[in-house]
Amino acid sequence: MLFIIGLGLGDERDITLRGLEAVKSCEKVYMESYTSLLSFGLDSHGLSNLEKLYGKTITLADREMVEEKAHHILEEARHSHVAFLVVGDPFGATTHTDLVVRAKKMGIHVQSVHNASVMNAIGICGLQLYRYGETVSIPFFTDSWRPDSFYEKIHSNRTMGLHTLCLLDIRVKEPTLESLARGRKTYEPPRYMTINTAIEQLLEVVQERQQPAYTEDTQCVGFARLGSDDQMIIAGTMKQLQMVDFGAPLHCLVITGNTHPLEEEMLEFYRCRT
Amino acid sequence: MLFIIGLGLGDERDITLRGLEAVKSCEKVYMESYTSLLSFGLDSHGLSNLEKLYGKTITLADREMVEEKAHHILEEARHSHVAFLVVGDPFGATTHTDLVVRAKKMGIHVQSVHNASVMNAIGICGLQLYRYGETVSIPFFTDSWRPDSFYEKIHSNRTMGLHTLCLLDIRVKEPTLESLARGRKTYEPPRYMTINTAIEQLLEVVQERQQPAYTEDTQCVGFARLGSDDQMIIAGTMKQLQMVDFGAPLHCLVITGNTHPLEEEMLEFYRCRT
Fold first, then answer.
1. Is A236 on the interface with B (CB under 8 A)?
2. Which intervals of the chain form a coiled coil (chains A, B) (predicted)?
C-alpha cells in the first residue's frame, strides 16, 4: 500500500489526524524535497520535529531519487505500507501524479490523504476561488531564455474579469553547467523567485504590448509563507508591491480581475500602507 | 479571538493537528451547517463523534443563525476564544468571508486554519489543477427559472482548452412558499443535485446553441463524496455518466478541456466500464 499524504502548508502541526494515523502505520516514510521543502521551514531541525511526531525516520526524496528510484519505492509498497509525504496537497505537482500512475500500473493500492494547498489557501485574502482563471507559472528569465507564455493566459483571464494565481519559480538541486560538462554532479544553490522579481518580469513582458493586460497600477495581492505563523499577505498595485520586502520564501502573487464589493472589503484589511 | 477552522472533506479525522489544538482552546464551538453538512455524514451520530474528539459541545449554525446572530457570536469572540468550524477550507464560501470581514471591523483578531477543499481535492483524478478555468455553479432549474449563465463560462474554458469544475446546487433549509406566505417558517426537505440532474440540465442548455461548447460525448469526471472513505470517481462521457448511480451526496462534476498524456493515463484508472 502506498499512502500519498499531504502535509499542508505551515509546519508539522498541519497534517490531518487521518494523515498522521496513516504515516504511523507505515514501515517506510519518504518525503518529497523538490517542490516546496522550504515552505515548511525544513532545515534538519524541522525534519527532526516531523520524525519526533511520527516516531519514524524520514528519507528525503529529491526529484532525482523519485525519478530514478521510483521502482524501488514502489517495490517496497507492494509488500508493506509506505508513506510518501508531500508539502501541500498530494496532487499539486505533476511528479506525484506520475508516481501514482506507476503504482497503479503495478497493481499497488494507493490511498491519498488530502490537505490544504496554495491553490485553495489563497482564498484567505478574500478573492473568491471560483473567480480565478487559469493558473500561470513564472519562470526565472535568463539572458537567453525569456519565455512569456504566461502573458497570454493572464490576458485571457483579465479579459474575462478573472483573477490569476502566479506560481513563482523554484530552482532546487539544479546541476551546474560545469558539472554537466564534467559528468560529475555538483549543484547550484537553491533559488526561489521573489514577488519583486516576478513583478519586474511581468512589467518587462508587458512593455511592448498593444493594449496591455495589466500595468504597474494593476491591483495585486502578494503572499509569502502562506499558511505559516509568519505569513505575509499584502494587497497593492504592482508598483507598490515591488517596493515591499516580503522576506523568506515561498512567495506567490495574485493579479486581480474584476472585484466584487465583499472582495474589496476583505482586501482592504491587507492593503499596502505606503 | 475568532478561529475559522477548516475540517476537510471526509470525517472527524480530517481536521489538522493545528485545527484540533485551536478548537480545544475555545470556550465556544460553532459549526456551519448550511453549505455542506451532509458531505461530512453528519447526522446526530457524526456530531457526537466530533464532540467526543474535541471534548466540547458544538452548536450548529445554519445560514439564518449566522446571518442573524453573527453579532452575538462575534461579541463572544471579543472576550474569549470562539471556534467556527467549516467543512472543507474556510474560504470556500462567501458567507465565511462575510463573517471574517465583520469580525475584523469589530477589531477582533481572526485566525484561519486551512484544510483541503473540493477546489483542490479534485486533483486526485489526475487533471492538473493549473489547467482549470473559471469554476461554475449549476442551480436547480424550475419551471419558470432556468438560469444558464454557467454555459458561457464553460464555453470560454473549453475554447481555451481548460477544464471546468461544476459545483452542483445544494438546497438546505429553504422556507416553503406556503410558510413565506403565512409568516411562520417551515422548511422544504433538503435537496442535493446529482451528477445525473446536472448533466441533464447541461445537455438541455446546449441543445439550441450554434457550435455547442460540449456534447453528450464530451469527456467528464464525476465525483461523489470526495475525500470520504466511500468516495466514487468515474471518468466517462456525459452520456455514460448520466447512466451511473453515484449514490449519496455531495456530487460534483468536471468537464474536461484538452488533456495531456499523463492526465489521460491517470483518468484511465477511473474510466467508466459500461
1. no
2. none
